[in-house]
């Protein structure tokens, strides 16, 4: 029987203007559906993918940001946001969507999925992964 590998999807690009953010989200959902141990990291301009109230009407692209709210339903509960990337872009956790999951081990208590980590902490977490996929 094979061991479950840890997959981290690293998101560094702004949500629109390229296909990277949408493709990352699609691959994450597929991986989670196949019971992979999935986590996401958002750093650099990737932090913009999680901002609230995105309006894409001016660029003629579909707003896929509400899909992030479904990640908890796919047991994607480890979403790491790099603190320095937020600060460098003038953002705080309050500017991001509130992403949660229900913890079946804690009587289905609703818990936050987003974990604010320093650059150093994120490097350590990345080092613990079996597979890193960068978008």
Concise overview:
With 135 residues, this protein is an alpha/beta fold. The chain has one domain: Hypothetical Protein Ychn, Chain: A.
Question: Could you name the key traits of this structure?
Answer:
five-stranded parallel β-sheet; alpha/beta
Oligomer: single chain
Number of strands: 7
In percent, how much strand structure appears in the residues? Answer: 15-25%
| Ends apart, CA distance between termini | 30 Å
Rg, alpha carbons? 15 Å
Largest sheet: 5 strands, parallel
| Top CATH class | Alpha Beta
Low-pLDDT segments, ≥5 res: none
CATH topology: Hypothetical Protein Ychn, Chain: A
Number of helical regions: 3
Q: Numbering strands along the chain, what is their spatial order in the largest sheet?
A: 6-3-2-1-7
Count of all domains: 1
What is the helical fraction, as a range of percent?
Answer: 10-25%
Can you tell me the overall shape? globular
Q: Which series of helices and strands comes N to C?
A: EHEEHEEEHE
Provide the CATH superfamily.
Answer: DsrEFH-like
Second-tier CATH architecture: 3-Layer(aba) Sandwich
Briefly note the structural class of the backbone.
alpha/beta
């Amino acid at each position: 029987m094979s061991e479950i590998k840890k997959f981290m999807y690293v998101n560094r690009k702004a949500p629109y203007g390229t296909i990277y953010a949408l493709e990352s989200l699609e691959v994450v959902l597929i991986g989670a559906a196949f019971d992979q141990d999935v986590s996401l990291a958002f750093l650099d301009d990737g932090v913009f993918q999680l901002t609230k109230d995105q309006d894409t009407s001016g660029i003629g692209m579909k707003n896929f940001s509400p899909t992030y709210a479904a990640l908890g339903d796919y047991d994607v509960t480890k979403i790491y946001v790099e603190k320095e990337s937020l600060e460098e872009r003038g953002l705080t956790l309050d500017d991001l969507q509130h992403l949660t999951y229900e913890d079946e081990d804690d009587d289905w208590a609703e818990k936050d999925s987003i974990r604010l980590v320093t650059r150093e902490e994120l490097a350590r977490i990345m080092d613990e992964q079996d597979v890193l996929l960068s978008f």
